[in-house]
Amino acid sequence: MAYELYYWPGLQGRGEFVRLALEDAGAKYIDVAREKGGMNRMMAMMKGEGEKRPPFAPPFLRNGKLVIAQVANILFYLGPRVGLAPKDENARLWLNALQLTVTDFVKEVHDTHHPIATGLYYEDQKAEARQYASHFLKERVPKYLGYFDGVIEQSGGPYLLGRRISYPDLSLFQLVEGLRYAFPNAAKKFEKKLPRVIEVHDRVAERDGIKAYCASERRIPFNEDGIFRHYPEMDA
Amino acid sequence: MAYELYYWPGLQGRGEFVRLALEDAGAKYIDVAREKGGMNRMMAMMKGEGEKRPPFAPPFLRNGKLVIAQVANILFYLGPRVGLAPKDENARLWLNALQLTVTDFVKEVHDTHHPIATGLYYEDQKAEARQYASHFLKERVPKYLGYFDGVIEQSGGPYLLGRRISYPDLSLFQLVEGLRYAFPNAAKKFEKKLPRVIEVHDRVAERDGIKAYCASERRIPFNEDGIFRHYPEMDA
Prior knowledge:
CATH architecture of one domain in chain A: Up-down Bundle
Strand order of the largest sheet of chain A: 2-1-3-4
Largest sheet of chain A: 4 strands, mixed
Helix content of chain A: 40-55%
Oligomer: homodimer
Distance between the termini of chain A: 47 Å
CATH class of one domain in chain A: Mainly Alpha
CATH topology of one domain in chain A: Glutathione S-transferase Yfyf (Class Pi), Chain A, domain 2
Largest interface: A-B, 45 and 45 residues
Radius of gyration of chain A: 18 Å
Number of helices of chain A: 9
Structural class of chain A: alpha+beta
Order of helices and strands of chain A: EHEHEEHHHHHHH
Number of strands of chain A: 4
Shape of chain A: globular
């Protein structure tokens, strides 16, 4: 049976971190909200209709009767099942800590364009967004990505776990892609200090599943509805 | 052997969600950074000295050689070991989704006083903080806590899982305590719409381990270094 992924259609967003794992692994899945009637099905599940355990927000994954919300939680579940994580508990907890650090970073990326309120338009918080983005690029990008670069160094590389690829490596690929889209000028500079993260990105980009996916229509282009948005005024 | 908890001394912060689980369960643990020389030990671990898998940030928990970072990840590990989660995988994934929703909310609580940059003082982002807090109280508190209230309703109550308490219930207790400290006026109003969350809070407050802990010196009082800060100008 195919996995069912529920996520807002029309943007990569947080759902993309799950898509990349499913696509890399060649797992069968349905991107429900992009199918006819899918949005209604997604909204019904969020309202808790017939769900004992309703998810707070997309993305969530359904496998049979099991519904799993939260990106890191979905990947924790999928990882060993699709060959993107070892089965050993200690390694899984370590990967989960890494993925949750990705989650924290993604929230800060989102807040570069929405520092005051998710309920307001970008245009209504533009000045604050510029301030936020300037601190973000100066302090937070080097802190988070520098951490991941150090982890790869400690592991012996080329991946976060060492010789074996795992799902947070796919997320690093997406972070680099997204930051290049949103902040092309800044990225040129900060990438120089992240040789190991960039190597992970380049290796992931060459994987069969990812290559085919990125060339397909299933990969929604980056746009200004997603997490990574290109507003030139924010790119130093 | 006792668990070792590593967290900044002098504030409850994110470490508190772990402390509450350890205390409720009566688990033996050392609050390392509050002991003599503990801060140095914590900083050394974060620098990766002797650590193959260095944590990004506190809190982290050590059990023998295993080091686990990220609150939700620590609680995922501890839950079934200290009797605060079932061992069944599906239930654990569900609790993890709930705890990660707590994590998301806690980040927004933090951002009420730091909307622009963690690296700046509150005083440098006071106007933006007021704006943020006003949206937070109006839109985000009802959204998150209303969700948890609905989950308790669906489960049949009185707890998130139904009749059995689990670690995210302890986190709900902390959210209510913290919001009452930070936003006493607003809390009086929004609590009226959250009868089930408040019942969880009240039940947790009466548990032996939690009662003893809150009366002890181990419970650091809320203060303006933590996640929940009382700035009267932000409390509508």
